[in-house]
Amino acid sequence: EGTVRLPSEPASGPVENWEFADAEGNWNASAEQAAFEAAGVRWFNAPVGGTQAFTVAQLDSYVPIFKAAAAVGPTLVHCKTGYRSSIYTLAYRGRSEGRCAKWALDQAQQVGFDLSSRDSDAKARKFFADVLAC
Hints:
The protein is an all-alpha fold.
């Protein structure tokens, strides 16, 4: 993912804002993984995107990652904006706990994502409806 550039940084080229970025300002999974593991934190990668984003099949493919992460203790789940990681984490938790789509929508709102009405959130709402029990 592209790095968020601060107003004081150039529009292209190296970024020195302490994100895990390569010389062109693109997110670098290897740099992030090395930093986390050097600090003694297990690192998992589950990229979300493309036509598989917000599908039951993609969530199913992430279940082993979620289970492995849960086995090591508290887990930081993130993406550039927090949107995709929040949706997938809530879908996994909701499914694991037998929750309804409304629960996931309420939880999303509590962390800053009001998915109730925008057309751009329709895929996330459908995803919750497809994944969760009620």
